[in-house]
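Name: Pyridoxamine 5'-phosphate oxidase
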Amino acid sequence: MSQQPIAELHPQFSSPGATPRPWPDVDEALTKAKISWLSSVRPDGRPHVTPLPTVWSFGALHFCTGATEQKARNLSRNPQCAITTGTPQADEGLDVVVEGAATRVTDPDRLAALAALWKSRHGWDFHPANGLFVGDEGNEALVFAVTPAKILAFGKGEPYTQTRYTFT
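Structure predicted for Pyridoxamine 5'-phosphate oxidase:
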């Protein structure tokens, strides 16, 4: 992101005297995340949640999926989604929720940069072709970006914090 978002602490869900979690902590948590959870909505309104690797870059959280997978079908009808990541500990770490609309990434230069990040962060080999990621075995994946409309960060351990980040 070119500029830092506006941070607002929710005092009702934070420790007394807590301050908003610094944005660099959230940026680092998103960058280092190995697994995130994508929540999308099925056509009948039921939720669909699935784990997947993500890449935080270009001011958005990115993921890839096959065109016929449930998440891709859901997002084609309703791009609104949430992606979460964090730690399993109750009293330490940072949980992060990114809310926004998923949009397809098809620009060859951006796909090439993202493929390099997928390799360095997750060990997956992709190359861009025809607006997609293509794997070594010829498997194709759509690439999506979720530019945050809002991010919630939950700091666990004293001081507990619930911080909302909004983007202008």
